[in-house]
């Protein structure tokens, strides 16, 4: 590790630390319905939306109605995105003529299974892309279907977190807020304003924003290159801020148009954590003890920094096999050193490792490098981040509500150890909360492990409908343990609603498209519904006063307990699978075998 | 009137004379050795009977183990018939898996057997006595006790067993209640008041009483007690259910983690072109090692043992829920008298007003108290005797007319030889003196106020129209009470003193005893309101009570401990009965409740933490044939794949047995703050749980190799 690399990671963290309180305070005010400096401009828009949607602003919902509203919006969204994609050939803003007879020869067909997978992917805030956007989707699909869902799915995630926060903050209440109001306020006061500013920033840095088709250029070497264009900058901001991660281009944020400079890179990284970090402060404020929020922030920060430095360390150390061959790949003034396979020189090892860690801490899934090309340990960090349900700041909203589910498990056991039935921020943690928390943790691990197992052995016939290349493992670019890591990563990424790919797997077949869609749906909704059920149950409970006998949930001890719970539950669940993937790969690399 | 001598306290068992134990959890009166041979024999037999799948099915974790054991057995038999290799290994795995279930059963059976042993002891006392039933015409009729109904009245003579639960309606007798309480000293039972309840099966030692039966056959206190200790009415407590959900959920996760291994292995074998898939025995071994068998096997034993520990303190909990709730208590309502202070106020000083000889005051005070049977009155007589040697004075030769205390006059006294001696509340005496035309010196109210402020009770004494002075009555706070209340505060429990005293007096005693709050001039209704207010603020309240007027508050409190000497109504209303009738014991009950919860949490943590080492034993053993590189994970240097798996399974089984004593006794509990407690338990059971299995498995591996078992 170099001091420059270390300082980049540290500076990034310090900025996040600095913005947590202001962002959290603003979030709190917005969701409490308090007046903010944006109200003079945006309040009419908010009111217009309520009027158009027939929403009664003051009317609150029980957790069941809140969930029903959320699910109805999600079903509608999936249908809308599906239909728009299937019809894109007949719709405007399609300069490349995708899904028409005039499509370029390398274009990907928008098949029903691919359209369904993509619809589910964007509605669940996953942004897994089984296709290459440059050769598959029209500008209209990108803008009206995918980018809209980037906003909506982010707002839905935040709404769930806000509802769960209300569950902890309220007492003897029957309702947890109004879903439509929460989603509207989130979009109008938070996502839109920040994205407008961020878009301008990205355009300034060199991101493109137009409706033109690709241009063909002749390179210095005399070969021709097709350079894609399109309305990119406007989608880039929400891709990061909403932790969606679906790239406008296939190369995602590694593409020079999608991430032109180190500064744009740093800004993208900040957008990923901004709302997730702010929500921890909002939580503390809502439960009338900001230390509670900072404790969660601290647990997340420790896990973030440890992961980032493990990943960076592994990447900067590089590959011992190269060293043994006498290749000099240590850092010098003239070269970054370390494992630079699949990395952009303009970002280097530290920023790439940081990006890989942040994007998987936060269920974003945007990438600046191919995680597939990382060292085994460097690749293990993103994978483990996803498998622990992305609780490190996390997907917008999802990070906090997932972390609070782990908090419930942690205080349940920790609370007993101080001789009281468990409680957290004044709420008793009882049967219902434990049951719902277990359902959430159980559901994700079931689909990740189950689908990985099926895909490891599924014997499809070659050129069949389900998986044309043959058995499910025929789609892998690598064999052996690394191929296994690719499958495991894909389903982890889907269920974790991350959407980043380890790459190295061709997932655009009905088998992968449909199983991954199911994987994403389970990972999203079997986490959200239990979280809302917990919110409803907690909101109805009495507030218990804190005494010296109460489990302290603000100090170092609690932070350790929480981290321990997350890591141990994650490690125990996935250790056997990981041992057959990245862990054995690591030992193989040390023994001189590569993929 | 006969001669009056210095009275001695009655033979009543007075809680205040009892030695308070220094620790929060004192040695139980009924403590049995942990491994009593008879109980052990019974438990071992039961642990095999409990292998019945229908019984095991109640415990999801152990059910999975049993199914795994059965599955392994079937495959071993299959292999044996086919003369396949690895049969000896399979047989050993199957053996240890079965014994994992047996060990868990043993833990539960031990806890149950201890309860049953107690029930048997109780049942022996249920000999069918013959009752002397009093017919409406007043004649006796001899009927078997089992035919008595509620409302029947019986006569009980010396040596009789009282035929059923009831109330003394006539007479007073000393009764041996050792059957119920384990305490051999006889107790006084008398009609009227709060000492009228008698329990079936107890023995009349002197005098005779008439008892009105209050329970029907099969519903007596003794019947309920037997049912409770036998666990016939045992239900899982809410927290136990929630914990069960958690460990069942973990079991499902591990089931999935293990069930997906054969496909993963199949892929890997295909990829590297060598190795073999893990066998059923190895897969089941991994599963059993991972699922929380330790807590799964010990959970019900912990619950039963908690009830049993309460019982050993001579407290009868009506449900496990009550014991659990006592760990959660935020507020303890403690009666001042008998709990915080010694049973009664005592005269400590005679304070004269100007110009009065102290001797005169003592004389007048003693004379006026000679007929006063209250403890306060007696203490005045005693103090006068100690100070001025006034004793055994014949009052019969004088014309003495005793005036008893009345709530209306708030005075008592004696008219003797033309003197009207009165003692009573300061304002009452003031009125009395003024009515007689006397003057009240201003120092009277000064002295009176000063005593009140210091928590004492001033008792003014007057001779006709002359005020003599004041007797200072003082509440004596029990030794060690302040420390115990401080330790409660460390645990986050507020103590509230309930007293009928005026606020000034109450405040002074509250300060002296170190309680957090007090409720002065408390009526039963005030008590009830206070409990409701605390509960509305989310606090759990515990209290003790004995009188009928305590019943509503006892019922309202989350933990209501009724005194066994109390009325039936109080006992029915509470959810615990203290057979020793020692109100201070509430503190111990709280400690037991906490200890129960801590034991559960600690063993759960331990159980999960253990998995780390087991992974390091089994995963390399399982996959090294495919990826030899994974042998690097064999950090314990275990001998062979088979010895590694076997060692992990054996460790997993033995740890259950090793922790049975801990589950039955409960983990060590000290009244410290939650933070300190968590640090301590996380270090011991969390960190310890991660570390301990490494040397444990390593050692078992070495032994297996030495014995040529693997």
Describe this structure in words.
The complex is a heterodimer of chains A (595) and B (710). Chain A has 595 residues and is mainly alpha-helical. Chain A folds into 2 domains: 24-289, no CATH class; 295-590, no CATH class. Helices cover 60% and strands 2% of the residues of chain A. Chain A contains 17 helices and 4 strands. In chain A, the strands form 2 sheets. In chain A, strands 1-2 form a two-stranded antiparallel ribbon. Chain A has a two-stranded antiparallel sheet with strand order 3-4. In chain A, a hairpin with a 2-residue loop joins β3 and β4 (427-428). The longest helix of chain A is centred in the C-terminal third of the chain and has 35 residues, at 556-590. The two termini of chain A are 24 Å apart. By secondary structure, chain B is α+β, with helices and mostly antiparallel strands. Helix content of chain B is 49%, strand content 15%. Chain B contains 25 helices and 22 strands. In chain B, the strands form 4 sheets. A 7-stranded mixed sheet of chain B has the order 10-22-21-20-11-18-19, with helices on both faces. In chain B, β18 (494-498), α17 (503-513) and β19 form a beta-alpha-beta unit. In chain B, α9 packs antiparallel against α22 and α10 runs parallel beside α23 (641-665). Chain B is elongated, with a radius of gyration of 34 Å. The termini of chain B are far apart. The interface between A and B is large, with 68 and 77 residues.
Instruction: Give the CA-CA distance, first to last residue of chain B.
Output: 93 Å
Residue-averaged pLDDT of chain B: 83
Strand order of the largest sheet of chain A: 1-2
General form of chain B = elongated
- Beta content of chain B comes to 15-25%
Query: What is the gyration radius of chain A calculated from CA atoms?
Result: 23 Å
- The proportion of residues in beta strands of chain A is under 5%
Percentage of residues in helical conformation of chain A: 55-70%
Number of DSSP E strands of chain B: 22
Mean pLDDT of chain A: 92
State the low-pLDDT regions of chain A, or none: none
How many whole angstroms does the radius of gyration of chain B measure? Answer: 34 Å
Query: What is the number of helical segments of chain A per DSSP (H or I, 4+ residues)?
Result: 17
Structural class of chain A: mainly alpha
Low-confidence stretches of chain B: 1-30
Report the span from N to C terminus of chain A. Answer: 24 Å
Largest interchain contact: A-B, 68 and 77 residues
**Major sheet description of chain A:** 2 strands, antiparallel
């Amino acid at each position: 590790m170099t001091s420059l690399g270390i300082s980049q990671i540290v500076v990034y963290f310090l900025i996040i630390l600095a913005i947590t309180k202001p962002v959290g305070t603003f979030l709190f005010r917005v969701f409490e319905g308090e007046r903010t400096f944006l109200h003079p401009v945006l309040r009419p828009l908010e009111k217009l939306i309520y009027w158009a949607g027939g929403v009664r602003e003051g009317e609150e919902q029980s957790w069941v109605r809140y969930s029903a509203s959320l699910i109805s919006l999600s079903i509608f969204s999936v249908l809308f995105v599906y239909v728009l994609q299937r019809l894109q050939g007949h719709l405007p803003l399609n300069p490349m003529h995708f899904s028409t007879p005039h499509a370029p020869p390398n274009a990907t067909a928008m098949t029903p299974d691919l359209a369904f997978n993509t619809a589910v992917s964007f509605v669940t805030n996953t942004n897994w892309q089984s296709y290459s956007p440059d050769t598959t989707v029209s500008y209209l699909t990108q803008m009206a279907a995918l980018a809209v869902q980037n906003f909506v799915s982010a707002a839905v995630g935040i709404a769930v977190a806000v509802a769960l926060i209300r569950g902890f903050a309220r007492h003897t209440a029957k309702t947890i807020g109004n879903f439509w109001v929460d989603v509207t306020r989130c979009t109008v006061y938070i996502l839109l304003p920040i994205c407008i500013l961020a878009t301008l920033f990205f355009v300034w840095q060199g991101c493109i924003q137009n409706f033109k088709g690709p241009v063909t250029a002749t390179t210095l070497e005399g070969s021709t290159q097709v350079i894609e264009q399109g309305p990119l900058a406007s989608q880039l901001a929400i891709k990061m801020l909403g932790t969606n991660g679906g790239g406008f281009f296939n190369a995602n944020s590694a593409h020079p148009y999608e991430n032109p400079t180190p500064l744009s890179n740093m800004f993208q990284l900040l957008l990923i954590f901004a709302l997730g970090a702010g929500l921890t402060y909002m939580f503390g404020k809502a439960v009338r003890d900001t230390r509670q929020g900072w404790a969660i922030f601290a647990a997340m920060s420790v896990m973030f920094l440890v992961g980032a430095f493990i990943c960076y360390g592994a990447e900067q150390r590089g590959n011992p096999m190269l060293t043994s061959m006498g290749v000099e790949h240590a850092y010098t003034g003239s070269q970054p050193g370390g494992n630079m396979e699949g990395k952009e020189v303009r970002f280097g090892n530290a920023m790439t490792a940081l990006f890989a860690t942040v994007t998987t801490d936060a269920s974003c899934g945007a990438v600046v490098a191919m995680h597939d090309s990382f060292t085994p340990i460097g690749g293990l960090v993103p994978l483990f981040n996803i498998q622990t349900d992305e609780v490190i700041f996390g997907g917008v909203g999802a990070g906090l509500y997932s972390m609070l589910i782990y908090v419930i498990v942690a205080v349940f056991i920790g609370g007993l150890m101080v001789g009281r039935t468990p409680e957290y921020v004044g709420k008793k943690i009882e049967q219902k909360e434990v049951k719902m928390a277990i359902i959430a943790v159980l559901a994700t691990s079931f689909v990740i492990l189950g689908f990985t197992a099926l895909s490891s052995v599924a014997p499809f016939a070659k050129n069949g409908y389900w998986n044309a290349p043959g058995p499910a493992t025929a789609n892998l670019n690598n064999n052996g343990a690394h191929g296994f890591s690719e499958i495991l990563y894909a389903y982890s990424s889907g269920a974790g609603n991350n959407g980043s790919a380890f790459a190295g797997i061709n997932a655009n077949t009905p088998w992968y498209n449909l199983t991954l869609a199911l994987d994403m749906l389970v990972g999203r909704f079997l986490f959200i519904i239990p979280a809302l059920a917990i919110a409803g149950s907690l909101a109805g409970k009495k507030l218990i006063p804190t005494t010296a006998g109460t489990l302290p949930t603000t100090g170092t001890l609690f932070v350790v307990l929480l981290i321990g719970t997350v890591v141990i539950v994650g490690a125990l669940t996935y250790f056997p699978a990981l041992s057959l993937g990245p862990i054995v790969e690591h030992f193989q690399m040390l023994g001189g075998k590569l993929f | 009137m006969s001669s009056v001598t210095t009275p001695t306290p009655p033979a009543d068992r007075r809680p205040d004379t009892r030695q308070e134990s220094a620790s929060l959890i004192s040695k139980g009166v009924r403590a049995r050795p942990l491994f009593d041979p008879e109980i052990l024999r019974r438990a071992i037999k039961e642990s095999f009977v409990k292998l019945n799948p229908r019984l095991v099915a109640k415990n999801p974790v152990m059910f999975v183990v049993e199914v795994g054991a059965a599955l392994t057995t079937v495959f071993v038999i299959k292999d044996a018939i086919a003369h396949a290799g690895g049969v000896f290994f399979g047989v050993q795995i199957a053996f240890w898996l079965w014994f994992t279930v047996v060990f868990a059963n043993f833990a539960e059976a031990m806890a149950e057997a201890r309860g049953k042993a107690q029930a048997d002891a109780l049942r022996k006392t249920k000999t069918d006595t013959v009752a002397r039933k009093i017919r409406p015409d007043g004649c006796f009729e001899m009927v078997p006790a089992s035919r008595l109904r509620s409302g029947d009245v019986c006569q009980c003579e010396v040596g009789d067993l009282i035929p059923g639960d009831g109330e003394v309606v006539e007479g007073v007798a000393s009764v041996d209640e050792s059957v119920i309480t384990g305490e051999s000293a006889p107790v006084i039972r008398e009609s009227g008041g709060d000492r009228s309840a008698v329990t079936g099966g107890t023995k009349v030692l002197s005098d005779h009483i008439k008892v009105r039966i209050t329970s029907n056959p099969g519903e007596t206190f003794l019947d309920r007690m037997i049912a409770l200790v036998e666990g016939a009415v045992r239900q899982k407590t809410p927290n136990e259910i929630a914990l069960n959900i958690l460990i069942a959920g973990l079991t499902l996760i591990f089931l999935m983690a293990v069930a997906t291994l054969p496909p993963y292995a199949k892929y890997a074998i295909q990829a590297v072109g060598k190795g073999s898939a893990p066998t059923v025995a190895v897969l089941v071994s991994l599963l059993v090692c991972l699922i929380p068998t330790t807590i799964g096997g010990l959970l019900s034993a912990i619950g039963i043992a908690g009830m049993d520990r309460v019982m050993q303190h001579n407290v009868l909990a009506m449900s496990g829920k009550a014991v659990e709730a006592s760990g959660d208590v935020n507020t303890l309502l403690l009666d001042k008298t008998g709990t915080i202070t010694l049973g009664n106020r005592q005269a400590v000083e005679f304070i004269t007003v100007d110009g009065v000889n102290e001797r005169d005051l003592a004389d007048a005070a003693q004379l006026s108290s000679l007929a006063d049977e209250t403890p306060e009155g007696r203490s005045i007589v005693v103090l006068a005797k100690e100070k001025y040697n006034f004793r055994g004075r014949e009052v019969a030769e004088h014309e003495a007319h005793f005036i008893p205390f009345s709530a209306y006059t708030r005075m008592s006294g004696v008219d003797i030889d033309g003197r009207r001696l009165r003692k009573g509340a300061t304002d009452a005496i003031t009125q009395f003196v003024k009515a007689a035309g006397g003057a009240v010196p201003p120092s009277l109210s000064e002295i009176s106020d000063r005593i009140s402020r210091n928590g004492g009770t001033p008792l003014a004494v007057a001779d006709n129209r002359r005020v003599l002075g004041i007797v200072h009555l003082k509440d004596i706070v029990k030794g060690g009470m302040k420390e115990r209340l401080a330790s409660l505060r460390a645990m986050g429990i507020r103590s509230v003193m309930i007293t009928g005293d005026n606020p000034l007096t109450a405040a002074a005693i509250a300060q002296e005893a170190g309680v957090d709050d007090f409720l002065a001039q408390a009526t039963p209704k005030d008590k009830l309101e206070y409990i409701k207010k605390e509960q509305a603020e989310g606090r759990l309240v515990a209290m003790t009570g004995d009188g009928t007027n305590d019943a509503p508050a006892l019922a309202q409190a989350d933990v209501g401990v009724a005194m066994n000497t109390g009325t039936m109504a109080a006992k029915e209303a509470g959810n615990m009965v203290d057979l020793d009738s020692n109100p201070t014991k509430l503190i111990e009950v709280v400690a037991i409740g906490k200890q129960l919860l801590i034991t559960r949490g600690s063993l759960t943590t331990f159980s999960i933490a253990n998995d780390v080492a087991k992974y390091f034993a089994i995963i390399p053993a399982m996959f090294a044939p495919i990826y030899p590189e994974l042998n690097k994970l064999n950090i314990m240097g275990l001998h062979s794949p088979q010895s590694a798996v076997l060692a992990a399974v054996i460790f997993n089984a033995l740890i259950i047995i090793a922790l049975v004593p801990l589950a039955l006794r409960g983990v060590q509990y000290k009244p410290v703050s939650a933070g300190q407690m968590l640090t301590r338990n996380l270090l011991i059971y969390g960190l310890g749980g991660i570390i301990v299995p490494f040397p444990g498995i390593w050692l078992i591996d070495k032994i297996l190799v030495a014995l040529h078992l693997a």
